[in-house]
Amino acid sequence: MKLLNHKLKWPATVLFYTSLLIGVYLISTENQLDDLWNVPVYSLFGNEKDFMGTGLGKSGWTQNTLFNEVLTLFIICSGLVASFSKEKIEDELISKMRLDSLSIAIVINYALVLVANFFIFDFAFFNALIIFLFAPLVMFNVIFQVKLFNYYKVEDEK
Fold this sequence. Notes:
This protein is mainly alpha-helical. It has two domains: 1-86, no CATH class; 87-158. 65% of the residues lie in helices and 8% in strands. It has helices at residues 9-29, 67-83, 92-119, 122-157, and strands spanning 38-43, 60-65. Strands 1-2 form a two-stranded antiparallel ribbon. The two termini are 30 Å apart.
């Protein structure tokens, strides 16, 4: 698998966790920042209720705050760069740890989605789905960093 340069890892990691903390703050305080970057945007699926009461039939220009979209862009892009940047020394064992961490994160995320599907309802389920959008990146980064820490700790003891 082709990985990104290791020099990108720390700036992306800092941006990822900073953006993630801002996102968690906004979700937990229900602070919408409606005044920040409120601009007209073209919407493929408008806010007006048209098609079976869903709003899926009306496209056009609408007002929207772009802060959530920009924050989502930062979280996803910086999370992917942090996740798939090489270590300074990238060998087969680290590649295996990376793959194992990704597999564990995906399995845990979908297990949580299934649990939420049966025990969380209405708008709370929508909020859970937003969390599950970012959870694989967070879990992968945390699991992989813990595995790397344990690996380097054992190597230092030798």
